[in-house]
Amino acid sequence: ASTLTQAVHQRSGELALLRAVGASPRQLRSAVGREAGRVAAVAAAVGGLGALPLGLLMRSLLETEALVLPVPPWLPLAAGAAGALLVALAA
């Protein structure tokens, strides 16, 4: 949230100019919201793509030590997607 606040603060001049040429407060909120959504989507994709191979590596390392996890590999991804959906619906 603080990163988004800083980005909006840095663009306050641009937002003021848009307001001066007739953009409504709703349009400005919508534009900022879309930008935040795009940033969040990219962050989630990068995080997910980075976490999947690391998770599989961790699982293989644990299995070599005879610590078998009874969790199917798709379950954490499904839980993450469900959590993201709940957050999106709550917003």
Written overview of the protein:
The protein has one domain. Helices cover 82% and strands 0% of the residues. It has four helices and no strands. The protein has helices spanning 2-10, 12-20, 25-64, 74-90.
Give a short overview.
InterPro entries: ABC3_permease_C (IPR003838). The chain is mostly helical and about 90 residues long. It has helices at about 1-10, 10-20, 25-65, 75-90.
Termini distance?
13 Å
Radius of gyration: 20 Å
Note the run of SSEs as H and E: HHHH
Low-pLDDT sequence parts? none
Q: pLDDT average, as an integer? A: 85
Q: Which percent range describes the beta-strand content?
A: under 5%
The biggest beta sheet is recorded as: none
Structural class: mainly alpha
Per DSSP, the total helix count is 4
Q: What is the number of domains? A: 1
What general form does the structure show?
A: elongated
Q: Number of DSSP strands?
A: 0
How much helix is in the residues? Answer: over 70%
List the helices and strands and how they pair.
Blueprint: H1 2-10, H2 12-20, H3 25-64, H4 74-90
Could you list some keywords that capture this structure?
91 residues; ABC3_permease_C; mainly alpha; transmembrane; cell membrane; 0% strand
